[in-house]
Write a structure and sequence with these properties.
With about 450 residues, the protein is of the alpha/beta class. About 35% of the residues lie in helices and about 15% in strands. It contains 12 helices and 17 strands. It has a 9-stranded mixed β-sheet with strand order 3-4-17-16-10-9-6-7-8, sandwiched between helices. A 4-stranded parallel β-sheet has the order 12-13-11-14, sandwiched between helices. Strands 1-15 form a two-stranded antiparallel sheet. Helix 3 packs across helix 10, helix 4 packs across helix 5 and helix 7 crosses helix 12. The longest helix is centred in the middle third of the chain and has 21 residues. The protein is globular and about 75 Å long. The model has no long low-confidence stretch (mean pLDDT about 95). Bound molecules: adenosine-5'-triphosphate, 6-O-phosphono-beta-D-fructofuranose (F6P) and magnesium ion. Magnesium ion (MG) binds next to helix 5. Adenosine-5'-triphosphate binds next to helix 5.
Amino acid sequence: MTLELDDLRVRTLGECRFDSPFAEMLATKRTSPHYVHEDDRVLVDDTVSVLLARGVPIDRLPSLEAAGPRRKVYFDPAATSVGIVTCGGLCPGLNDVIRGIVQELTEHYAVAHIYGFRNGYAGLTRRHRERVVELDLHAVRDINNDGGTILGSSRGDQCPEEMVDTLVELGIDVLFVIGGDGSMRGAMKLTREIDARGLDIAVVGVPKTIDNDLPYTDQSFGFQTAFAQATEFIASVFVESQAAENGVGIVKLMGRHSGFIACYAALSNNDADFVLIPEVPFVLDGPNGVLRRVEDHVRRHGQVVIVVAEGAGQELLEQEGRTTDASGNTKLGDIGLFLKQKITEHLTEVDLPPTVRYLDPSYAIRSVAANAYDSVYCVRLAHAAVHAGMAGRTDTVVVRWRRRFVHIPMRLITSHRNQVDPDGDLWMSVLEATGQPASFGT
Ligand SMILES: Nc1ncnc2c1ncn2[C@@H]1O[C@H](COP(=O)(O)OP(=O)(O)OP(=O)(O)O)[C@@H](O)[C@H]1O
Ligand SMILES: O=P(O)(O)OC[C@H]1O[C@](O)(CO)[C@@H](O)[C@@H]1O
Ligand SMILES: [Mg+2]
């Protein structure tokens, strides 16, 4: 997708007329290597060749609005009510984001009310309205020490009209949606309904995905915690595989469409000999197939460790009878168990009867509390989201792009998936670290 400058402009509800609590602090600030002034913009591209190829003046290059506090805000803080909802699968750091939003809104903007909706979009429906909780500093004090989300989450479609009725009933001015691609699609339906009714409600997203598969963001929050957690499971099967004759360790990691967790976890301690991801199809049979390569490795080293992303090799599995979850996401076949079976059969056939150690850590990597790095990242995203909302930005998400916090239009975050580029340097690092072939098969 070729982006033009105008595709990157975020929507705003109107002129910012109220004094911001940050006005004084910002009065003398100018862009520096470590700060981007609110009137400045951050470039999307970062290579000379791409910038030159655009062939436009510098001020027409694709660029993003800087996130951060404004000198003036759109909403009168003392009269503002805010809602927060977390949707989709869990991810380390959800509580840190909730806490950061509540603290910033309370301590700096001193808004009138902060409401938490329970269990995702379901919490905005009529039948769950009485379960709305009011959030204050006390309610969020220690929540960063826990995984999950104090608000709960859910999958499954809800009616936008009904959800907007709830926002109106509670007098919500800004809704913060912390969620993945599906949640952002849901949030865009909310803004459409808000627009249709001519309401003055801002919807700001904080993108969340444990799979790191959302575009226009350096890396999603919680991802680092999740892959660090995954590393432990790889280390376990490595130890087990070393101790056994023809030891085979297999770890299946989350990643429906993108193999980032598998790549990073495998690179982290370099115990993996093969990494299989959805972005790089593979064949099992034949002289260059996975089975022969695994066999060769076991013959040479006496053991092997394979890390497989859950979305890898789906084309090798039975497609019939595939169902979807409540949100419409396709339920995948189990590539981990399939590999376990095929590798066991093959090694037994070639007289290398294996001892297989198979781990599917699944929810164990995403249900933990964020590590220190992710906690910092989360609180900074939370602050950016609050400033965006108070400044009347809507249909907008806050992300970190090339280490700067910026605003992007919500529709861009759902425009495509971030995936491991088989021609990119991450996959090259995986190939270098594992020594596996660039492709299996022909
Ligand atoms: N196209 C859509 N329109 C409206 N709502 C949607 C749409 N897609 C998903 N949603 C809603 O958004 C919520 C979360 O979606 P989903 O379960 O797909 O998780 P997600 O936000 O993509 O997060 P993750 O993929 O990280 O688990 C659900 O309530 C779902 O019904
Ligand atoms: O079982 P659940 O809660 O639907 O979530 C599972 C999925 O969520 C994801 O982490 C995406 O959020 C996938 O990688 C994983 O398969
Ligand atoms: Mg999703």
